[in-house]
Structure formats: structure tokens, C-alpha cells
């Protein structure tokens, strides 16, 4: 299981990049890269917020300087807890989008975000699984449904081997 962490422009300007990365070192750090976010990447990443009133300020901030994208392997809930701890330790700098780090808030969000930032990353892929319950300890209950298969337009029969297809992808930057 992996999660996306973004070290935002404010953390980099405050020279907290190395410290932020070190907070995740006891997890397994996968892909990592520095990128200047453009408007298109920002719209993809924050697709749920584009129509909201605060989005223009968020986009301006996120596109203002370099961000560090990190694929961190481990339970999403544990990675999210580390990110919240970073925010709490530097609470004087936390306001609106200027909150130092972003981390995926669920397994579904993590997969979507990692596909945006690291579209060519090695991953385990099973198009038939629907997450039913994302537990705080990082475990999940999964239900295989025909509705999920049909929604994805998949007609091939499910076999256990399909769950183990290895897909190799190249980083976006």
C-alpha cells in the first residue's frame, strides 16, 4: 500500500524539506521528485476543489514554487498521521493551503493521486476490487463485484492472477 505526500512550497521556503522527508524515513520511501506544479497538474490533483471558492488561491499557492512529491509505502492512516504531526509541530505556519504537507486521506485517494504524480510507477493492480472499509490500522476489507467490473468497462473474466498483474510506469517528471 502506498500514499502520496507533497511537501508544499511553504515548507520548502522555510527550509523544512529535508526534515519533512526524514519524518517519513521509517516508512518505505518509494519514488521522489521535485517539480514545479503547473495549472493542469494542479487541476488534476485538486479536481474535487476546482469549483470551490478557495481554489484560485490554492492553485496560485501550489503553482508558486517547487513541490516535492513522494510515494511513501505503508498504511495510508500511518502516513497521514505523520503529515498531521508535521502540521502540528509548525502550527504557526498552518493556514489555508499553506499547511506544509499534503498526504492522501484514503486508499482510494492515494491510488488516484499516485496515478497523477507517478503514472508509471510499479504497482499491483486489480480493476475488480472495491474498497468497502479502510481501517485506521491500514488494513482494508475488499469486495469483488460485477458492478465494479461493468463500470470500468471490463469484460475479461476475473481470475486470481489478474490481481497480481505488475504494471510498470514512468514518473511524470
Characterization of this structure:
- It is a single chain.
- The protein has 173 residues and is an alpha+beta fold.
- It has 2 domains: 2-117, 2-Layer Sandwich (Alpha-Beta Plaits); 123-167, no CATH class.
- It has 7 helices and 8 strands, in the order E-H-H-E-H-H-E-H-E-H-E-E-E-H-E.
- A 4-stranded antiparallel beta sheet has the order 2-3-1-4.
- Mean pLDDT is 77; it is low at 123-136 and 138-173.
Largest sheet: 4 strands, antiparallel
Strand-pairing-aware structural class: alpha+beta
Report how far the terminal alpha carbons are from each other: 22 Å
The strand order across the widest sheet is: 2-3-1-4
Query: What is the name of the CATH topology of the largest domain?
Result: Alpha-Beta Plaits
What is the percentage of strand-forming residues? 15-25%
Which stretches of 5+ consecutive residues score pLDDT under 50?
123-136, 138-173
Number of domains: 2
Helix run count: 7
Proper CATH architecture of the largest domain? 2-Layer Sandwich
Highest-level CATH class of the largest domain: Alpha Beta
Helix content: 25-40%
**Number of extended strands:** 8
Q: Could you say which overall geometry the principal axes of the C-alpha atoms support?
A: globular
Whole-number mean pLDDT: 77
Features:
single chain; alpha+beta; Alpha-Beta Plaits; 4-stranded antiparallel beta sheet; globular; disordered C terminus
